[in-house]
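Protein 1 of 2
SEQ + STRUCT:
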Amino acid sequence: MVGIKTLPDTATTPTGESHFRFMAARIRRNPYTQALVAEVDAFEPRIEAAIAEERNLLIAEASAAAAVQFADHDLDASVDFVSVNVDNRSLLGQRLFGHLRPSELKRPVLGGQLDVMKTWPEALAEADKAVLKDHAPVVAARAQAGEEAAKEKKIAAQNLIDFRTIGTRVKLNQDHNKLRKSLFGKLGEIQHEHKLGAGWAESFFLQDSAEELSPSQLDKKIGAATAELDALKKQREALAAQEAMIAAQRAQAAQQEKKAKLEALQKLKADLAAQEAALLSELSEG
């Protein structure tokens, strides 16, 4: 017998299912292989469970991504609302935006924007304008929703990665290969016993699939993936630089706020000292 292909540990769930369905259908309908049907039937729930698990993980990831988008939209709305009600040149404006334009602050999807806006409620609560004071709890709620959405998305993405790289799918592919190898051996015995001709045992297994590419096709996919990776690296570098700028602007704004408070306290102290001196002078004259 020529042999059958071994499914890689990285084979997708649909690919594993296609190979299993092909094999199972033939074993169930061939009169020589009825003794093997029980093994196939026993393994099928593993295939169905993996499909259901991956589907639920994909749903969870999509749901989390939607939560991130909606949370980001709400934070962007707060940026727009605050920006039209505060002078960016004022102390409060510097505290909130630093030297960033509102459009620049809104550019990251959560990320640096969320880090900045988590500090807004305290500053807005001290604002002179009532509309800004009233918006402080709104921003607080939106920032918390953003933080929860970002955490949910991170967990959902990691759960899907784990399923595909170290979890259910890898174990399923390994056990599926063991089943295929075992059945292939038994099919070979049946082929030999009944003189069924060369290739009979191999015919129960799907030899090719859409994912089993030729070396040249793999080279093309590698080239495309490398180009995409390079683009993603550049995008990440740009985002990291932007978030670093946001962090620096936030630190600078906080420093300016502290200096302004210190100057105000020093002025108050000087005024009090002058008043004290005046009172002492009046008392000494009296």
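Protein 2 of 2
SEQ + STRUCT:
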Amino acid sequence: MFSDWLPIAAIALFISALIVSLAYMLSKGFHLPALEAWSKVEYRELVVTTVLIAGLALGMGLVDIGVNQLAQGPLNLQFGTVSGTPAPIASCTPAPTPTFSAMYDFAQCYLAGSADYMLLVYNKLLDADRYVAKMTSFYYNIAIPLFLVSASFSGAPYAGLNVLSSLIAAGLDALAAAIFIQSAQSVLLQFFWDNSFRWILPLGIVLRTFTFSRKLGATLIAIAIGTYVVYPMTLVFAAGVYSQPSIMRDITINLPHEPPDLQDTMICNQFVQEFTWLGSITWWFIWYTPKCVGFAHGYWVCMLQEYPKALSLYSKVNSVFLVKYASTLKEYAAVNVNDIYYGLVDRTDPNKGALAAVSHDAMITAALAVFSIIITLSATRSLSQQLGGDSQFYGIYKLI
């Protein structure tokens, strides 16, 4: 790309020089002093533009050499760890000769690597959200028949941890926003790399040739330089900040062993649920109505005689169910509430837990993105003023 834009810029300069030369010849041939004066002014502006392009080419070459000297081999960016596991290293190898692509490679590595790292954290936090949702929604109700009466035990031991669900949701939202920011910056960087010097800069050079469009042309030149040179440099700086161990926090999610899903156990078996839901009275009628319909001493006399048998049989079947899923209930009961809470929140300092680290990392990502945009806009605005272009980018500063 470094070699692509120079011929295009030279062609744009040639077209501008051709237009100004034709105007000068016409002014001499038809004795038009005003057109002659305009041509001389445009020649001076053309010289200024030529010097600007030459200085830009030299400056970009120096920047590229510096980046390549700094890189010297693969560009590695190490991000934080998730539950003790290092995130994948974003690595790329710059071109062996200075082509100005090393800086872009570095910037793209940073954007892609940080997005992948936060996506890894997002998936881990999503697993934690599923775990917490399973535990907080767990509710048990055990009924034990005792002849004519029954005893029941019920509870929701982890309902108090619902606050974690809202904190995890906030962390997921922050990570999603940070991933979107990095992905959007990657798309913008690729767009600037493909178009800023290939189309915007030559168009600005041509438009700067004419008085009526000089301001617009200067503005386009400043935009091309800002987006093609300044913006990736700010991303390289952001990458250096982002990968510092003292800046990014390691994220540790250490939740207890996850009990099995209830739908895979006897508790959620359809037959067990229907049997328990019908209750002992219903099964009393179902089991003994056929026997008591033709009883000589009356239907209800027979039914009352058989009720203790029905209740005993129901209790035995229900006890078998209890034995079958007792191990599952034991696994849920063995989980300590504090272990779940402190698996996401630091035991000694709430500002150092996994949820705090997620918010911190997402905030750093957003802050670095805003820094890159502000520096790019400020440099573009200043350069546009120096070239005689527009200094106000209406609406953009209000967005920021």
